[in-house]
């Protein structure tokens, strides 16, 4: 399971747990309140509810203040995660029209790491690692700087948030992993795909950026065959990376 799908599942489980706890609390309190109405009379029940209303309101407000920030965070996580795996599915469908399905790997996870690589193409034209971004707002790269655009304004983001930095780090560990498994130095082409198409760059982005299906297809079709990547080598790499 990919990281976005794990994040989505985790967020949904948290939200479902909150809803269950909330309705359990309502159900138990309602049962306890209604159980003895015949003993005190319906009027006494409503009077009791009237006097306890301020206390109930404070309890509800306290519960809301404690859970609401976490709920908002999890809802945001779920939405972002859903966009993430929808973007991966879209790019996967693009790739299947350009290369053989058996040459595409999804969600490559290395041992003792907390990240995955969204998609990889392994064939005679080389090894292509693909990071998919399905963002809601435009982004911009200016040499070593990364900007996030919102409401017409550009905000400089931390280098740690720059997808190029993260992706290059992941590929570094991937290369080391392949070397460790006696595959020697393997050159890996890196592509960032922005499915919303709202990406621009000024100067050298330092990594190949794709923003639509046609650009991805043209990039792959223009690649030359790598004689070192024989079918045997490709199968060895796919077998190694496709371990579950």
Neighbour order of strands in the largest sheet: 1-2-3-7-9
Total strands: 9
Which residues form runs of ≥5 with pLDDT under 50? none
Mean pLDDT: 78
Quaternary state reads single chain
Q: How many structural domains in the coordinates?
A: 2
User: Secondary-structure element sequence?
Assistant: HHHEEEEEEHEEEHH
Largest sheet: 5 strands, mixed
What's the alpha carbon Rg, rounded to whole Å?
A: 26 Å
User: What structural class should be given to the helix and strand makeup?
Assistant: alpha/beta
3D shape? globular
Distance between the termini: 10 Å
Helix proportion: 40-55%
Percentage of residues in DSSP E strands: 15-25%
How many helices? 6
What do you see in this structure?
The protein is α/β, with parallel strands linked by helices. It has 2 domains: 3-79; 97-241, no CATH class. The chain is built from 6 helices and 9 strands.
């Amino acid at each position: 399971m990919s990281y976005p799908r794990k994040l989505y599942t985790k967020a949904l489980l948290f939200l479902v747990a909150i809803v269950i706890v909330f309705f359990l609390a309502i159900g138990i309190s309602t049962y306890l309140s209604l159980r003895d109405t015949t003993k005190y009379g319906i009027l006494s029940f409503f009077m009791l509810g009237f006097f306890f209303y301020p206390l109930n309101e404070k309890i509800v407000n306290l519960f809301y203040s404690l859970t609401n920030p976490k709920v908002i965070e999890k809802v945001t996580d779920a939405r972002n995660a859903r966009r993430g795996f929808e973007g991966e599915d879209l790019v996967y469908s693009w790739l299947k029209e350009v290369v053989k399905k058996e040459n595409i790997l999804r969600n490559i996870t290395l041992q003792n790491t907390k990240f995955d690589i969204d998609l990889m193409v392994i064939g005679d034209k080389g090894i292509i690692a693909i990071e998919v971004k399905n963002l809601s707002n435009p982004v911009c790269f200016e040499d070593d700087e990364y900007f996030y655009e919102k409401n017409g304004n550009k905000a400089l983001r931390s280098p740690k948030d720059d997808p190029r930095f993260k992706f290059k780090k992941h590929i570094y560990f991937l290369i080391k992993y392949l070397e460790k498994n006696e595959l020697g130095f393997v050159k890996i082409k890196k592509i960032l795909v922005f499915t919303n198409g709202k990406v621009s760059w000024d100067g050298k982005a330092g990594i190949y950026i794709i923003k639509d299906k046609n650009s991805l297809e043209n990039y792959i079709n223009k690649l030359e065959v790598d004689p070192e990547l024989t079918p045997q080598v490709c199968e060895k790499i796919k077998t190694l990376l496709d371990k579950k």
